[in-house]
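Fold these two proteins, one after the other.
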Amino acid sequence: MKSNKSVSSKSPSKSVAPIKMKSALTNLNHLVRAVPKAKTAAPKEKPVAKTRSVKPSAVETSHVAQPSFASIEVKIDVGFGNLLFIRGQGCGLSWDKGVQLTCRDQSTWLWSAKSGKDRVEFKLLLNDEVWALGENLTVAPGEKLDAVPIF
């Protein structure tokens, strides 16, 4: 019987340990619940402007109308002291008074202007007096025309 008592005395000690554990866990849970929760405010985000990514080429073609230039390059040696003029219709040209072309070198003359949407009809003149032979010439917006007039 002594052996039974020793076994029975060990039994109560085994059952005591889980009870202590349970009460310890209960106490810990009580402590955790007692700690006030820290207020965690969400960081305020700065207002961001709404932007849209657009390719530069798309901006140029769809939103901003690029000016078209009509340009004329004339190849002729008009001689020392002579000038080349243009008269016509469109881009501010007039049939009544000519606009002087820019001399780039001995035999190359240049003229260009914003042409908008309309074609430019023109004729070349030597010293704004002598008309070039042949029909009137035309240049479209954004187009470059090379001309060799005969006087």
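Now the second one:
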Amino acid sequence: MQQPLKIIKIPKKYHPNGFDILYEDSYIIVGNKAAGFLTVGAAWERVNTIHAGLNQYVRKGNSKSHKRVFVVHRLDQATSGILIFAKTDKIKIALKDNWAKTVKKYYVIVHGHMDKKSGTISSYLEEDEDYVVHSTGDNGKGKLSHTEYTVLKETPKFSLLKINLLTGRKNQIRVHLADEGYSVVGDVKYGGNEQKYNNLALHAHSISFVHPISRETLTFQAKVPAYFNKLVDYEY
């Protein structure tokens, strides 16, 4: 019989900048990433990331500590929402090995009204030399990707969608919706001229997965940013 997990409760003032810790035990950390923060380092920024902040957090200020966290998955810099980090490489591998069974739900607001109010968008996705992701008809170049969606509410200008992310490619939701002609509000990269919207309306709202140690199915939800309600009033 598995031993009960030791839940760690840390005051919010110790949480890394841009990351509200929702759950922590001896094996994993789950939190809500704010929009505008990198999950991991990029060519232009290595220090101010959620990953780096959590490494400092688990070291508790001890510069000689070798403690670290391990990246299980990522969110785009402009995307907010749920992220999981592992405290050991073994736990990271276990979570990744079960990733196909992990349920990931997103809220997204797009321009316009979709003809089909629910469905699945599928294509092969590839990234070019400029780090832009495209759909391609060449299955030898791209990775088959699936995005399931349901329209929850429409306003004169926008549609609110609930997304079930069936695969997890870089920029997948943004590219698939833009391909269909319904770009994400605030998406400068794939949506054209979006300068008047300061935030990307894409949020990783919930995740359900099997804990590698306790074998319990855990579900977490991340509070939707306030700017979503300014675009589409809804009980998120």
